[in-house]
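Hello, quick one for you while I still have it in my head. No rush at all, and the record is pasted right below.
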Amino acid sequence: MIDIKDVNVKAAYQKAMISALNKTLAMLKTYVKRELSQTYNMRPSDVERYLKVVRASTTRQRGWIQAQHVRISLGKFKGTKQGQTGAEITIKQTKTLPGTFVAVMSSGHKGVYSRKDSKGNPLPYVVPRQGRYAGMTYKRMKGKVGQPLPRQKMRELPGPSMAQLFASTSMTKKMQEFCSRELPRIFVHEFNYYLTRR
């Protein structure tokens, strides 16, 4: 019979709870990464970079997973492609954004862009100072040969933040069910381990 007033039992309980919390959180992160990547059509590695585990410790006997509020590039969603009238985005459903286009930057970054501002006004033309178009000049246009070739500015359209996807009602319910199932099981295993360890 276990005496809950025993010092060794109390110490084993505390260590077991912290260990069980951290192991459950690690498993939960893997579970969340898989669920979000499947639900929202993203690569697991792209999901993981927006998730952070805050581990429990002896001074803070609780832990959690937090998702960044940074807006995700629409190019991170695997279904993003160029359509006839604009970029086609597939997050949970496919949607076309008229007048936009998919482009890959020289850095390898893929995104969805527009040559209009948020109000629908055309963006101005500028002479690029860096990148693949820097230093380009007119080759044939009469009166402009050798002059810098301006390019119309473009803006990248942001997608939802990982925090928004993470906080969805269905995802919250799945995480609660996961923790209710796994935490007690892991705690029993850890408690028996620390209780018998000498």
Observations:
- The chain has a mean pLDDT of 85.
- The longest strand covers residues 86-90.
- Residues 116-153 form one domain.
